Amino acid sequence: MTTTSFGKKPLTGIVPPMVTPLNSIDSLDIEGTEKLVEHILSAPVSGLFILGTTGEFSSISYKLRHELIEKVCKQVNGRVPVLVGITDTSIIESVNLANKAADCGADAVVSAPPFYYAAAQPELIEYYHNLAPRLPLPLYLYNMPVHTKVMIDPNTVKKISEVKNVIGLKDSSANAVYLNLVRHAMKDVEGFEIFVGPEEMTAEMVMMGANGGVNGGANMFPQLYVDMFNAAVNRDIEKLKPIQEKILEISATIYTVGRYGSSYLKGVKTVLNLMGICNDFIADPFHRFRKEERDIIRKNLLSLGIEGLVE
């Protein structure tokens, strides 16, 4: 396993998992994409992650994925590292996406276990031992059991990390016990990076030694999440407390509007639309919030002190 990230020191901080702005099922919102990238990079984030769960990778075409990789890498132009999701049920398509990412100047790729058939732990080890050597970029594992139906066991993480270019893990299990067991399993593996998905627990895990957060809320309020990380890494509890309360309020008032598991994504895209940044179109099988939910989101944003919203 490599001991450095992208040939430099390990990556730390907030790496927002960018939504994919869409005009239709197979059309990027180009202006919205440009605005969103600049909005996110207006804060000192540490990187940008595209084509993850928040980016709707599983719902959009390969053509669209390739187009997004091209446009984001060109616009970012080395200002921060770009991480590209390559999760797929086909190892060939994962490699194809990784090659595209490398050609466009991305810095690393991210892979969750193939979904549909749930792999056993020995099968996961074999899969990543087959996948990683074919990739032209460093690889982050992505633990997302709610969608892949499998948890990457801490000992499995350690076995997979033996492959030279596997450099870290993004965990979105929302399971603090699991994440601490991963940290324990990897304590003697120099340079292995651990990033936290759920923003509600990122600060706590950073104080325990995680490298940072891949937090969806940083699409909307990137500076808030950078401030959270800085307060956590400096163990400034007094500064962290009000930031954490605001992050929990965002979770409680934005991500829970609606009745379904897709409410988080609908909430984030609605906020970005109300902020005048990008379209709120969501790829099938889901659809954007209707007026009733949109009005609730608007009211909740005003309660959070967010002004200047568009109609």
Structure, explained:
The model has no long low-confidence stretch (mean pLDDT 95). The protein has a single domain, classed as TIM Barrel (Alpha-Beta Barrel), CATH 3.20.20.70. It contains 12 helices and 10 strands. The N and C termini lie far apart (50 Å). Helix 1 packs across helix 2, helix 6 crosses helix 7 and helix 9 runs antiparallel to helix 10. With 311 residues, the chain is α/β, with parallel strands linked by helices. Helix content is 42%, strand content 11%. The strands form 2 sheets. Strands 1-10-9-8-7-6-5-4 form an 8-stranded parallel beta sheet. Strands 2-3 form a two-stranded antiparallel ribbon. It is globular and about 50 Å long.
Radius of gyration, in Å, reads 18 Å
How many β-strand stretches? Answer: 10
The coarse overall form would be globular
Low-pLDDT windows of residues = none
Helix-strand blueprint:
Blueprint: E1 13-14, E2 22-24, E3 27-28, H1 30-41, E4 48-50, H2 62-76, E5 82-85, H3 91-103, E6 108-111, H4 121-131, E7 139-143, H5 145-148, H6 154-160, E8 166-171, H7 176-185, E9 193-196, H8 202-207, E10 212-213, H9 222-233, H10 237-253, H11 263-274, H12 291-303
Parallel strand pairs: 1-10, 4-5, 5-6, 6-7, 7-8, 8-9, 9-10
Antiparallel strand pairs: 2-3
